[in-house]
Design brief:
This protein is of the alpha/beta class and about 230 residues long. The protein has 9 helices and 4 strands; from the N terminus they run H-E-H-E-H-E-E-H-H-H-H-H-H. It has one domain: Diaminopimelate Epimerase, Chain A, domain 1 (Roll).
Amino acid sequence: MPDRLYNFFKKGIFLSLFLGISLFANPVLFDSVGVNKKFINEVSKLSDDLKSKTGIDIKLAIYKDTNGTIDELQQSILGKIDDNTIVLLLVKDKKFVDIIAKNKELFKLFNKAQILSPSASFLQALYVAVFYTQNFKQFKDVLKNSGGTILPILAQKTKTNKQEISKIEVALYNGLSDMVEQIAKNKGVKLDTKISNTNSTIFEIIKFIFYGMMIYFLVLYIKRRKNG
């Protein structure tokens, strides 16, 4: 091997190890939020595991904001990926999250509506349906889709930019791991990567807080009815 080519590979491998990121499989298409390298590594393990067993690649596109429209951004991303790639897209300042793919057949392998549901549980979906829907169709749609694994986490308030980034990482990893597990199950394969239990614990805490708020407001409502 020529010395120049050898030095190129040697530097590339060293840089990859130094950064802690795989040289050949970065799962993040774009990031203007500033997620941590450890998060990227965890996502890479999941993405690589799924791709090696199913041929399906999952990528993240994380934007702080976008100059154009959301539709323009989505079309731009779709133009850069192949038919075996799914992209989990987040635009932070616009509070927008979506899952996109050029090949629509890929959507049959996971429940997109469930993953992107704003409700973490059926009880939360019922609460949202009762108090925030305007017609019966909306009521049914909200009630039909619960178990969201991204939006309920993103809805939590944070005080610092560091906490905000951590919240985004947890939400994206939670949704990504949910999607990966569903795809693997539908493809009949077993993944080697173990999903972190940390996100499940945080998710349970969020649901506990929500249920506590529901009970609190229900008690207030009953008291007002009695006093009225």
